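seq as requested:
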Amino acid sequence: MTAPDDRITIYGSFTSSSSYKAILYLALARLPYSFRTVNLKTGVQKTSQYLAVNRWGVVPSLRHRGLTILQSNVILDYLARTTGHFEPATEQQRWQAREWLSWEADHITAVAKVRHSARFRASHPEVIAEFRPKAEAALAFVDNTLKDRDWLVGDECSIADIGCWGRMVFMAEGGFDIARWPHVEAWSRRLKAMPGFALPYDLIPSKDREYDPA
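struct tokens:
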């Protein structure tokens, strides 16, 4: 599992919202990368080969310039610092974008927990019952934030938007109707209008792939 130092390599899974965040960033930034699929269904994440990349046996993982970076929001931070794309204009805004990523990991992740239980573990309704109110509260907070602005931080899309949307993207699979949050829905349309945007099942490869934008 090696690649040339200057080329970004992402290890991820077709059904993973965490993987989607990093890949969406690269697609919107029009950056070349290598994708290495980690089939969670067959347990590739538990193999010694993958554990040598990611000690927790989760996705995504990033390798670049001799570094290995783990955790989706840390990867977004690294990509923004390294490539300069989707960094807000001021230092205060750059910290705010990272605050959003930290908040997402505590709150919007509830959307993913509901979706995972609804799609993959339907025999655990108690998980859905616990996390649905938390997910709805997080969605309502984002909706209210976007009431008078186009983006979460500053005047353009940033890693805050990519990180938060990347976790919300499978909300319909968790039974959340985005129309309940009209400002979130309008924000999602702005994201979808950006060159390079695609939804997860259209963007995340199901097999290893080399991506080189024209």
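The radius of gyration is 17 Å.
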